[in-house]
Design a protein that fits this description.
The protein has 16 helices and no strands. The chain has two domains: 1-152, no CATH class; 154-313, no CATH class. By secondary structure, it is mainly alpha-helical.
Amino acid sequence: MLSRVADSMFWMNRYMERAEGLLRVLHTNYVLSLDKGPYGVHTWKPVLQIFGSLHEDEITELQFSSAGVLKYLITDAKNTNSIRSLVNKARENARGMQDHITKEVWEEVNYIYHTVNNPLLEKHLSGEHALATLTHLLKHCLTYVGVTDTTMPRGQGWCFMSAGRFIERGIITADVTLKQFEQIDFQIEDHKDILYWRNLLLSLSGYELYLKTYRSTTTNSNVLNEVVFNNDFPRSVFYTLSRLEKYVKDILEENNPPDKETIYREFGRIHSRVKFADENFIKQVTLRRFLEETKIDLLKFSHLLGQQFFSYA
């Protein structure tokens, strides 16, 4: 497989996974913004800090405007992390390698592209149809995942696509978890009721699993366990690394690159740090540091793969 094609497959899936993750967060926060709830007036500040690149004064000005936030994070072409920008980049990657993806994958990417570039989208997001529009966009991102899973052949291209997906998923989980715990100063041993954690758990589609799995009253600790260590939760950090391990191994064994052992060791270090961690270890290194370093490690590993397989300098 040409490095250009592998690069496009890797990044197409990373961009689509990031778009889906952002839409989950937007959908959850929009629903919660409709209800004052027990923790006061809803603010978009954490979401803007995670997914935007605005200065603090700009965030302060925008944080209570749902319409303004949706415009910035979905349709603003100047925002390189908006849904429109992400989908445009995903389609550009897909367009350059149509011979290597199925017709169904191309059609789904193309459909989402035309949806987010519809001139009426901004109007829909600022009116009474905002929630329905968010739901529609999110469902088509989920459809993209289903279409790729059921139509793509399980060759090298699939391995690079999956590696991109799980790297991005791990980064998003670390990011949103970091921001939610930051608001309570990373106090694992304190107790916040489940209403406080709805934002994080719904943003990661883990709310129902939490209610079915955890019975003790140590809510903060339980939430941390689910989003970081629960191997049955498909968006936990540990699960994403476990799946990434398979695709990294398949890529390395198929291609046998010169730095094969270096890549194995680097990934093993990242995976082991999470696999063999527990709450006591996290308390020693601090939760903030643990999550930040996990995110940085995944970004560095992504770059390492790029240097080895995509001809990055």
